[in-house]
């Protein structure tokens, strides 16, 4: 700052203006006080997240993990790495370059796999055992470093949100895949890509607004699952067959 003031004084000299040393010192003190005031006002905001912001982040991590896990991990880690949001201690691992690289790579793989009819359903089936536990772990990580009990509660709720989002996505895709054209599948996939970004942005920037939006999404999810009940049963049957529980029992001798 002092160097900048000196350069300004020298420039004024070249213009024929000769401020006194007292004037320059006064200007420097005023600028310094203004900077300190701004810094003092901003520092408490960026130093840590308040409780509504933490709750919104945990809910967003759980919900969005149900349909775009790798995007959620990458976006959260990238925002923390860039200093856009102060991540809780339990989530700072997401900022590690190795985690960012791995989640970024899987984000790209999922982006293309999710655009191919029936491959998307297969991808969802495989990730049914990954997204829900991951959503629970990410939500728990928001509070787990400070309180084991609060972290457990957040994990349970985060896992429930992830399961709801996953069921809605998988059921909707099962219904869409009955159509021979791929356009509807692409539109649904791009919508989910954008939704993941919007969910994380809202949760970190406008926690209260995100809470309202999340409540609306939960209601819509329940309605969709009721309307598409036939396809939900199809998804459950495919999951049961995939994990072997649907295999016929051996006949007795």
From TrEMBL:
<feature type="transmembrane region" description="Helical">
    <location>
        <begin position="125"/>
        <end position="145"/>
    </location>
</feature>
<feature type="transmembrane region" description="Helical">
    <location>
        <begin position="209"/>
        <end position="232"/>
    </location>
</feature>
<dbReference type="InterPro" id="IPR025196">
    <property type="entry name" value="DUF4126"/>
</dbReference>
<keyword id="KW-0472">Membrane</keyword>
<feature type="transmembrane region" description="Helical">
    <location>
        <begin position="94"/>
        <end position="113"/>
    </location>
</feature>
<keyword id="KW-0812">Transmembrane</keyword>
<feature type="domain" description="DUF4126">
    <location>
        <begin position="55"/>
        <end position="225"/>
    </location>
</feature>
<dbReference type="Pfam" id="PF13548">
    <property type="entry name" value="DUF4126"/>
</dbReference>
<feature type="transmembrane region" description="Helical">
    <location>
        <begin position="54"/>
        <end position="82"/>
    </location>
</feature>
<keyword id="KW-1133">Transmembrane helix</keyword>
<protein>
    <submittedName>
        <fullName>DUF4126 domain-containing protein</fullName>
    </submittedName>
</protein>
């Amino acid at each position: 700052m002092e160097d900048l003031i000196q350069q300004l004084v020298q420039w004024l000299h070249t213009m024929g203006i000769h401020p006194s040393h007292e004037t320059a010192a006064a200007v420097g003190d005023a600028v310094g006080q203004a900077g300190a005031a701004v810094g003092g006002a901003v520092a408490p905001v960026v130093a840590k997240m308040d409780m509504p912001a933490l709750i919104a982040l945990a809910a967003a991590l759980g919900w969005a993990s149900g349909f775009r896990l790798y995007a959620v991990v990458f976006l959260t880690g990238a925002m923390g790495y860039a200093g856009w949001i102060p991540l809780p201690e339990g989530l700072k691992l997401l900022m590690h370059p190795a985690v960012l690289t791995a989640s970024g790579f899987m984000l790209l793989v999922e982006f293309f796999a999710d655009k191919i009819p029936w491959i998307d359903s297969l991808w969802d089936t495989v990730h049914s055992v990954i997204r829900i536990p991951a959503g629970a772990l990410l939500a728990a990580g928001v509070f787990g470093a400070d309180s084991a009990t609060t972290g457990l509660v957040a994990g349970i709720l985060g896992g429930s949100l992830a399961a709801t989002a996953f069921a809605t996505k998988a059921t909707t895709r099962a219904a869409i895949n009955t159509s021979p054209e791929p356009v509807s599948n692409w539109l649904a996939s791009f919508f989910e890509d954008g939704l993941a970004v919007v969910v994380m942005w809202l949760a970190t920037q406008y926690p209260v607004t995100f809470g309202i939006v999340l409540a609306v999404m939960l209601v819509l999810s329940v309605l969709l699952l009721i309307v598409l009940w036939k396809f939900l049963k199809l998804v459950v049957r495919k999951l049961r067959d995939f994990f072997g529980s649907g295999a016929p029992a051996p006949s007795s001798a």
